[in-house]
Amino acid sequence: MVFSDRLRIAMKNKNMTVSELARLSGMYTHTIYLYLEPEKYGRNINPRIMSLETLAEALDVSIDWLWGRDTKKDDKWGRLMMYLDDLELTYSFGMLEADPMKYNLIHAIKCELEGWE
Predict the structure, then answer these.
(1) What is the CATH number of domain 3-66?
(2) pTM flag (> 0.70)
(3) Which residues of 62-72 are buried (b: 16+ CB within 10 A; e: fewer)?
(4) Per-residue CA distances from 91 to 13, 87, 99, 111 (Å)
(5) Where is 29: in which H helix or E strand?
(6) What is the largest CA-CA distance in the chain?
(7) How far is CA 68 from CA 52, 56, 64, 74, in A?
(8) Taking the alpha carbons of 57, 16, 95, 45 in that order, is the dihedral positive or negative?
(9) What is the C-alpha separation between 32 and 18, in angstroms, rounded?
(10) What is the model's pLDDT at position 56?
């Protein structure tokens, strides 16, 4: 999962619009759109560390999570949660055929597993 996916997930979890994130982070909305949709603009722009820190703070997530470095390769639990995040994202953004039962099941499993950490 790339930075733009994580940014999208964090915004969705906070029910935050681009305008709200721009206001909270002090960044331009255009910059946030560049981060969210690099393929649309034909270039992949990665934030500088200060911008990454500001975005993470505004979204109440860790810099490591936002950048996609929250799990170690040998951390099976972390990889499982990341896999479930990816599945949840693909369903919620229509990348897979819409199936509310599968999406709800994935979400329920994630919620249950988060309680066992």
Answers:
(1) 1.10.260.40
(2) no
(3) eeebbbeebbe
(4) 15, 6, 8, 16
(5) helix 29-36
(6) 41
(7) 12, 12, 6, 15
(8) negative
(9) 7
(10) 92
Length of the chain: 117
Distance CA 97, CA 15 (A): 23
Where do the domains of the chain lie?
3-66, 76-114
pLDDT of residue 73: 46
C-alpha closest to that of 6 among 91, 78, 80, 64: 64
pLDDT value at position 117? Answer: 46
Q: List the chain pLDDT tens, one digit each, 117 residues.
A: 578 888 998 898 889 999 999 999 999 999 999 999 877 877 777 788 888 899 999 998 888 888 877 655 445 666 666 667 766 666 665 555 666 777 677 777 777 776 654
77 Cα distance to chain centroid: 18
